[in-house]
Automatic annotation (TrEMBL):
SUPFAM superfamilies: SGNH hydrolase. It comes from Arthrobacter methylotrophus. This is SGNH hydrolase-type esterase domain-containing protein.
Length: 93
């Protein structure tokens, strides 16, 4: 598809350790993506603690399903023919 983004960056959605730094990491990643004209999907908060496995760092099977559905919705919601300036405004939560 002509004019479609070749790269879509998916932000962090969970952290076993250092979760307090995730909002700042998300904001930095979003700014860098915007500067480069790359689509950024903000996935912070997609997973609740009950969707994380006993290791504390990886989702259980239902968590993977939630991630897949949310990614599919976000990508379907992208207007791939729009300008990069408009893409910067479309950060999915």
């Amino acid at each position: 598809m002509a004019g479609s983004p070749r790269v879509i960056v998916l932000g962090r959605m969970w952290a076993k350790d250092g979760a307090e730094h995730l909002p700042a990491l998300r904001d930095l990643t979003a700014r860098v993506c915007a500067d480069l004209g790359i689509v950024f999907i903000d996935s912070l908060g997609w997973l609740s603690p009950r969707l994380i496995g006993p290791d504390g760092g990886h989702p259980i099977w239902l968590g993977h399903t939630v991630i897949a559905v949310r990614i599919a919705r976000a990508i379907r919601g992208l207007q791939l023919g729009q300008t990069s300036a408009r893409r910067r405004q479309n950060r999915y939560r």
